[in-house]
Write a structure and sequence with these properties.
With 376 residues, the protein is α+β, with helices and mostly antiparallel strands. The chain has one domain: 3-Layer(aba) Sandwich (Beta-lactamase). Helices cover 28% and strands 23% of the residues. It contains 11 helices and 17 strands. The strands form 4 sheets. Strands 4-3-17-16-15-14-13-12 form an 8-stranded antiparallel beta sheet, with helices on both faces. A hairpin with a 4-residue loop joins strand 13 and strand 14. Helix 2 packs antiparallel against helix 11 and helix 3 packs parallel to helix 7.
Length: 376
């Protein structure tokens, strides 16, 4: 089906969602193979453990949990709960395998993969390239920012003032919200005050991802969703997706993607396959290494590569406890993709706790208190 058949759905406040169709031919090349937990190296009561966590109210407003190991579907559960599509209240939704869900900032990590694909095609500059060479219309802002490179954007170490961590997204002074409402989002990002040396400190920034999205769109001469479908979603057999566009018509690289948990798990399988999907190279091995390289510390638990988080988690109990590396992406409300290469494991989680104080708790407990302790 041609991408020209994509439709636009009017949201509120001038925003749109761009919907892309399923690709039946690509999807037919991959079928999920369900497997009993015991046959995938899990305790047989894996599903009961998840139910108990939810019944004990230790995990709330989960919408979907998909666990994949060695390419097989170990567990897939969906729940009903309130949800939003960006700014549109969807009310109570009965989720299922085909229900799209906001990924919020998980979008950032997918854009990180798209940059690597565009780089392999020779359509975007390498990480060491000066940032302002890609934004000649904003040359008046380059003074004092000459040292900025695309590497600093990819690793979120630009050294400029940005705050979407301590200010809630309901506050118009939150940097990402202010960017969305600015007359020129790129000028808003690039004119932020210099507060530190580039490359030294990690600052969470949707503005950085917006710059990547613009560079990709300019270099490929395609809107970001079109390029994503052509080089990533369609080759993986990912079904319908939607991509939020702001008041200015620019698709939000930082948080605009909607996808099913099943299809998010396909991204995890691609990572586990080293960028190869069914014998086809989708992302270069070198780029995946950069995505999960420990370039800068986020906090005492997480490091950051090129738009992907990296860390270590304990699996098992003494005396057989061991540390396992994880790669992942996070989104507001409890959206998560955990990839654990040493266990050949991917876990996709969606939830509806947008901007809640402890939104991180439900997906964290699913992983730490259900999935990992169930591995035998």
């Amino acid at each position: 089906m041609s991408h020209l058949s994509r439709r636009h759905v009017l949201l509120g406040m001038g925003a749109t969602l761009m919907a892309s169709p399923a690709t039946p031919l690509a999807a037919a090349t991959f079928e999920w193979q369900p497997v009993a937990p015991a046959d995938a190296g899990f305790a047989p009561d894996l599903e009961a453990r998840l139910d108990k966590l939810i019944a004990d109210k230790r995990a709330w407003n989960l919408h979907g949990v998909v666990i994949v190991r060695s390419g097989r579907l170990v567990l897939e559960r969906y729940f009903a709960g309130p949800d939003w599509a960006v700014t549109r209240n969807l009310g109570n939704v009965a989720f299922g395998p085909g229900t799209l869900h906001d990924l919020r900032s998980v979008t950032k990590s997918i854009v990180g993969l798209l940059y690597g694909i565009a780089l392999e095609q020779g359509k975007v500059p390498p990480p060491e390239a000066p940032l302002f060479a890609s934004f000649p219309a904003y040359a008046d802002l380059a003074a004092g920012r000459e040292r900025l490179t695309i590497h600093h954007v990819l690793s979120m170490t630009m050294g400029t003032d940005w705050d979407e961590s301590t200010i809630p997204y309901t506050d118009p002074t939150n940097s990402e919200i202010a960017m969305e409402f600015a007359p020129d989002r790129y000028r808003y990002i690039l004119e932020r005050r210099v507060v530190g040396e580039p490359g030294k400190r990690w600052t969470y920034s949707g503005g950085a991802t917006a710059l990547l999205g613009r560079i990709i769109a300019d270099g490929t001469a395609k809107p970001l969703p079109d390029f994503a479908c052509d080089v990533l979603f369609d080759p993986l057999g990912i079904g319908p997706t939607e991509w939020f566009a702001g008041r200015d018509g620019v698709h939000s690289a930082a948080s605009g993607l909607r996808m099913t948990p099943r299809d998010l798990a396909r991204i995890g399988l691609l990572m586990l396959g080293g960028g190869v999907w069914q014998d086809r190279r989708i992302v270069s091995a070198h780029w995946l290494e950069k995505c999960v390289e420990q370039i800068v510390s986020c906090d005492e638990f997480r490091r950051f590569g090129y738009h992907w988080y990296v860390g270590d988690l304990t699996v098992g109990t003494a005396p057989k406890a061991r540390l396992e590396r994880w790669w992942g992406c996070n989104g507001n409300g409890g959206q998560r993709l955990y990839v654990m290469p040493g266990l050949d494991l991917a876990v996709a989680i969606t939830a509806g706790n947008y901007s809640a104080h402890e939104q991180w708790v439900p997906p964290n407990r699913v992983l730490r208190e259900v999935v990992l302790p169930s591995i035998v």
